Automatic annotation (TrEMBL):
Keyword Membrane: no
Molecular function terms from GO: ATP binding; ATP hydrolysis activity; branched-chain amino acid transmembrane transporter activity
PANTHER family recorded: ABC TRANSPORTER ATP-BINDING PROTEIN, HIGH-AFFINITY BRANCHED-CHAIN AMINO ACID TRANSPORT ATP-BINDING PROTEIN LIVF
Protein family (similarity comment): Belongs to the ABC transporter superfamily.
Pfam family for this entry, one: ABC_tran
Domain ABC transporter: 6-235
Organism ancestry: Bacteria, Pseudomonadati, Pseudomonadota, Alphaproteobacteria, Rhodobacterales
Organism: Allosediminivita pacifica
The name this protein goes by in its record: Amino acid/amide ABC transporter ATP-binding protein 2 (HAAT family)
InterPro entries, alphabetized: AAA+_ATPase, ABC_transporter-like_ATP-bd, ABC_transporter-like_CS, BCAA_Transport_ATP-bd_LivF, P-loop_NTPase
């Protein structure tokens, strides 16, 4: 792969006494969707949190757009153009939807054209713009969580299980918004347990096991090879 937008080289991450990432080597290509897959507890969320700077590395390097950001603070990585959507949504329940979005625009006020694009991607946010975020449904909160990362254009989006526990109609809305991000030229690293979504959105795939990347390749190859799926993850996407 030539000139990836994100590269993790031999990254080790500890959380308390636990050695979670054990030499992760990962490249995320530009302008494409890379699916980070694997069974629960293998280090996918820790990989995203390490990439955005929530967790420090014990060893290894993280390069964003060719620049070593291993020691760079999370806020500075955001200013460089990395958006992050955590699994726990990370919204401020006591603030309105508008206030949540305003805080997310790290480079300045929310641009009206960007706001209108977000309204098109997630229509409920227009309806509840002045409402406290805590009053939204679970699916609407997830929309807001993703929209906050989209408050301004980012070069790379790190997104952790955006469709988890959501109704099919909302999953479809989420997938449409992520597909639109891709058409805008954004790069996306996406952790996703819904394999129908993974197959529909993914260009590339990286599979984790025991804190390491154990396979990388085209998403289409993984999606059509049931034996490979079983060997890497102990499951078959054909059953999903």
């Amino acid at each position: 792969m030539s000139d990836p937008i994100l590269r993790l080289e031999g990254v080790h991450t500890d959380i308390a006494q636990y050695h979670i990432l054990q030499g992760v080597d990962l490249e995320v290509p530009r302008g494409a969707v890379t699916m980070l897959l694997g069974r629960n507890g293998v280090g996918k969320t820790t990989t995203l949190r390490t990439a955005i700077g929530h967790w420090g590395t014990r060893a290894g390097r993280i390069l964003f757009d060719g620049e070593d950001v291993t020691a760079t603070k999370t806020a500075d990585r955001a200013r460089m153009g990395i958006g992050y959507v955590p699994e726990d949504m990370g919204i401020f329940s006591d603030l309105t939807v508008e206030e949540n979005m305003t805080l997310a625009a790290v480079s300045g006020p929310l641009v009206p054209a960007r706001r209108d694009w977000i309204f098109g991607a997630f229509p409920p946010l227009r309806t509840f713009w002045k409402s406290p975020a805590g009053t939204l449904s679970g699916g609407q909160k997830q929309m807001l969580s993703i929209a906050r990362a989209m408050a301004e254009e980012r070069r790379l989006y790190l997104i952790d299980e955006p469709t988890k526990g959501l109704a099919p109609a909302i999953v479809s809305t989420m997938a449409g918004a992520l597909r639109e991000l891709k058409t805008q030229g954004a790069s996306i690293l996406l952790v996703e347990q819904n394999f129908a979504v993974a197959k529909a959105l993914g260009d590339h795939a990286a599979v984790m096991d025991d804190g390491r990347i154990v396979w990388t390749g085209p998403m289409s190859e993984l999606a059509t090879d049931a034996g490979l799926q079983e060997r890497l993850m102990g499951l078959s996407m054909e059953a999903t």
